[in-house]
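Ticket reopened. Same input as before:
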Amino acid sequence: MDFSTKLNALVARTETALDRLVPALPADAPAGPARLHAAMRHSLQAGGKRLRPVLALAAAELGGPEHIEAALPAAIALECVHTYSLIHDDLPCMDDDDLRRGRPTCHRAFDEATALLAGDALLTEAFVILAQTYAARPALAAALIRELADAANARRLIGGQMQDLLAERAAGENIPPATSAELEYIHLNKTAAMLEASLVCGGLVAGLAPAALETLRRAGRHLGLAFQIVDDVLDASAATAELGKTAGKDARDGKATYVSLHGLDRARELAAEATAQARAALAELPGDPTFLLALADRMLTRRN
Amino acid sequence: MDFSTKLNALVARTETALDRLVPALPADAPAGPARLHAAMRHSLQAGGKRLRPVLALAAAELGGPEHIEAALPAAIALECVHTYSLIHDDLPCMDDDDLRRGRPTCHRAFDEATALLAGDALLTEAFVILAQTYAARPALAAALIRELADAANARRLIGGQMQDLLAERAAGENIPPATSAELEYIHLNKTAAMLEASLVCGGLVAGLAPAALETLRRAGRHLGLAFQIVDDVLDASAATAELGKTAGKDARDGKATYVSLHGLDRARELAAEATAQARAALAELPGDPTFLLALADRMLTRRN
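Engineering reply: fixed in the latest deploy. New output:
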């Protein structure tokens, strides 16, 4: 199977599992929960690259193709956490974005309070899914929950968002922009943490050895840095229509990015270097890493 | 030990465990995470009744006093989820409250974005604490996580908040107020869900039998209803200074409450009836329910 066919197959399995695992409400549900679930699905089913689920499924497959099915709930939990972080990040008190994945953001399609609660609900739902679907394998359930909660916590995902927010405010007040070290901190935590967790969760489901899990974590870290540098490059060079979100926002906000700190050409080089480091880690893994290697390349050359 | 001495002892153990289990940051932490952790602690260490931790610890003690210590991390996880829900509920797009537990609300003491992220972080931290501290007992870890996530999810805690929000909006637009059934739905999910989970989590740590766990759940449901009716009564009859939060808000907002639907006297009777049902359930439990029975009474006669 070539790369695109396989990628599309994994994305399709993710979409089906999303619909199955994120609860629908009974027809007689009260208006509030019905609205809440509609908002959750608005953001969850807006398409998107499904990068985190695909990474989890591909990592699980390193232990054998039979692990893909077992990794689907973990993949969906990761996507729930990712989507919650986007919904809250888009809120007026944060980035105040109108457009996400080419559709109105959750608070634009519904309202702020509904978006706030829909984000809360998706974060919670991630742990519901892990605790319920892996209940027969409690050690695995606990390990997955620990991995996901650690990646999403105040030191990593949320800490990175908070630091990012302070950097944006500094830009707004003409305080000197973030340094290269500060920017790396933001990206390692805001972006790389969840990509690391995606690969490691897949590896956990497949029962990979601790050394392989640490190699997956290292690959995720480099992939995460590369991903974020490419995001900065695309924001500076792509059009809104192609990007599916407002382009050129970073420069307008005076925000420190890899492009503002290093220039467009050097940022592209840094993304390529991080991708090469990710590839080197992936090549050490047991099983066949062909798909993950091709995915790393695709992440580097993506246009949105 | 008399009731108040014991209550104070359990609250004191909760405060100590909170300080130990909710991570402090290293001195060289970036400004963002430092601010985030300060906001988390602002709301978490604002006092409060610690009702959910005390319920969990008291339920654990039904299996023997040695289970209190083991239940402390579960108790703190419950308090983290409760505090997150208060922080988000107080935000301008929700209830827009300035005062909570007699102190400025999180977004007043910090700002909206920081309060949003601090709430997110406390919800996540609850699962970090459960997954880490019970890692050596993975079946227990998974059961506690499932119980907490189910109570906090879109059908229960968050669903109740969403329905409550719609009811408040209806009041603002002179749409007929919530019916008694709708109000019970809100209270069963917004309030009772977490009190049920508190008792059941304590019982899980103590290894109580499934029948006892279901009795705890039933007791929690009645206690939760009683608690919320008393909240409505206090809002209508107490002073802000005594309450520690803005009093008289419900009537001003035209919000449907047990008092607006049934009158003050009948609401007090309904609270007493729910308390009697909780007491009847508690009396069926194994172990010595004396403390929990006294706690049910104290919850009925509380002044804030």
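The CA atoms of residues 230 and 301 of chain A lie 8 Å apart. The two ends of chain A are 24 Å apart (CA to CA). Please confirm and we'll close it.
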